[in-house]
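INFO batch 0412 | record 1 of 1 | parsing
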Amino acid sequence: MQRIRRISQACIMICKSCGRRVTPTLARRARTAVYSALNLRFVISFILVLTATSAFAQSDYSYKKEFGATLGFSPASYHGMIGVIDGQQYYEASLNFGYVLWQNDDYAFKYKFSLIPFALVHGDQATVELRPGRTVYAGGAEPAALQLNFRNNRKIQPFVNATAGGLYFTEQVPVTDSSQYNFTFSFGGGVEIFSGRRSIVLGYSYHHISNGYTATYNPGIDSHLISIGFSVKR
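INFO prediction complete | emitting tokens
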């Protein structure tokens, strides 16, 4: 207020020096004009700061590449859409690479590749091959995976995804005369929570394992896979 008063007084002095009579109305108009100008400057400054802050926050979540790791667990398989083997637990650990194929302010469409150095099937119920308590280990990869993130450039981003790949087991899975090599596919979704250039990924997927009728028997294993992971963006 002191600053406004000083500026308005300066305007009044200029009017006096020009020989113009300073009335109360003129003085009030001078103060109002100065006040409006300062308010306008404040609003413009606030908008500029807000824009810069928003741009900075948005750039924190924009990226082209990502690297991460994921742990997945299914407590039991069941007679699902394709697989018929019940009671098999499934675990996997993966190393992931992602590349953003296309994005705008609302969506990000990504290709992903996952290397699976460790996976296992544990038999809770008896099958011909997997007796109760028996564990069979595997390794493999998912070279074909796509993911669509919603609310791109936001801190919390829901997503949907689909994957396809393969696993090689130390024994035939899930039954005798099936195969050590099995194909995998999954589809599901989740949420990605960002903190700067890092994110935590929580997901669910319908996961299928089978040999695709490349062996005598192809019963398949269907699981509800819960996963948690993290990734670093570049």
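INFO post-check: Residues 24-60 form the longest helix (37 residues).
INFO record closed
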